[in-house]
Amino acid sequence: MEEAELQIFMNGELVPANQAKVSVFDHGFLYGDGIFEGIRAYAGRVFKLEEHLDRLFDSSKAIMLTIPYGKAELMEAVAGTIRANGLTDAYVRLVVSRGPGDLGLDPTKCPHPTVVVIADRIALYPADLYQKGLSLASVAIRRPGGDVLNPAVKSLNYLNNIMAKIEANLRGMPEVLLMNNQGYVVEGTGDNVFLVRHGELWTPPVNAGILNGITRQVVLALADDLGLVCHEDNFNLFDVYTADECFLTGTAAEIIPAVWCDGRAIGNGQPGPVTQRLSQSFYEYSRTTGYPVYGSAGQAATA
Ligand code: PXG
């Protein structure tokens, strides 16, 4: 779809993309003062919409930004924007910024938050990488800990992650692993990380300084259903190099195998059986649950 034809939700109205404009005085633009969610819809249903909105409201509470809509209204804003664009599979970006103010930091000068919903398609990585697996590198840039800016707040401050992405680009890597100040591996640039060791699952704990990804939580629940032992515990690069399997999770990435790290093959350098089983479970689960976009049957209108 041409970008100009996209319908964007802007402060309560659907407007064509070329009219969806934000003020240069918006503190989201001036200071990164705001929060967001990346959400997916599969087969006409919005996946884990309530969980995404709960996280958004938690972020808003932490930064004292009052969202001028309730949860039910935001659910309809998300579903309505997907509907307005005739999509059944979609990637949705919901952004709430502090809104326009003056040239000082003070958020009390911003009485009207800006609320935007964009619904489009996304393919984060080329399809063959899901079959073959990603190569990773560890990077020098660190994920700041929860004592700096708590990563639980999904804020518009992604410069740290972008710096890591720049390191990835400079090395020709599709994705990289970030460590925290203790040297524990915590996340990719926009994904959570999992290892498989001796048939058991490992992922960094929330208090290591990560975003508690919705996909991460779904994978932990699916793994539990499959009878896998899951450890939410710290690990380091040695553990990545010597793991049997590694994969990343995120709304945009879904579940993607990682088969190399810093020049070492992880396991046998191929996506492993546990990653494949979880990917299959995730695929089935994500297509059979969620908030219906086109009515209770969850059926897509022929747009
Ligand atoms: N960690 C971080 C730092 C993230 O930004 C995740 C983990 C995964 O969380 P969910 O809830 O999506 O399972 C994210 C996801 C991208 C992109 O292009 C990803 C995110 C935000 C913006 C862009 O991959 N967030």
Please sum up the structure shown.
The chain has 303 residues and is of the alpha+beta class. It has eight helices and 16 strands.
Structure commentary:
The protein is an alpha+beta fold and 303 residues long. The protein is 27% helix and 27% strand. Strands 7, 8, 9, 10, 11, 12, 13, 14 and 15 form a nine-stranded mixed β-sheet that branches. The protein has a seven-stranded antiparallel β-sheet with strand order 2-1-6-5-3-4-16. The protein is globular, with a radius of gyration of 20 Å. The two termini are 13 Å apart. Bound molecules: 3-[O-phosphonopyridoxyl]--amino-benzoic acid. Residues 38, 124, 161, 187, 190-192, 211, 213-216, 249-253 line the site of 3-[O-phosphonopyridoxyl]--amino-benzoic acid. 3-[O-phosphonopyridoxyl]--amino-benzoic acid (PXG) is lined by residues 38, 124, 161, 187, 190-192, 211, 213-216, 249-253.
Strand content: 25-35%
Task: Domain count, please report it.
Answer: 2
Q: Which fold name is given in CATH as the topology of the largest domain? A: D-amino Acid Aminotransferase, Chain A, domain 2
Bound molecules: 3-[O-phosphonopyridoxyl]--amino-benzoic acid
Average residue pLDDT: 95
Most strands sheet = 9 strands, mixed
Task: Look at the helices and sheets and give the structural class.
Answer: alpha+beta
| Known CATH architecture of the largest domain | Alpha-Beta Barrel
How would you classify the quaternary structure? single chain
CATH class of the largest domain: Alpha Beta
Number of strands: 16
Radius of gyration from the alpha-carbon trace, in angstroms? 20 Å
Intertermini distance: 13 Å
**Topology as a string of helices (H) and strands (E):** EEHEEHHEEHEHEEEEHEHEEEHE
The helix tally amounts to 8
Low-confidence stretches: 298-303
Characterize the overall form: globular
The CATH superfamily of the largest domain is: D-amino Acid Aminotransferase, subunit A, domain 2
The helical percent reads 25-40%
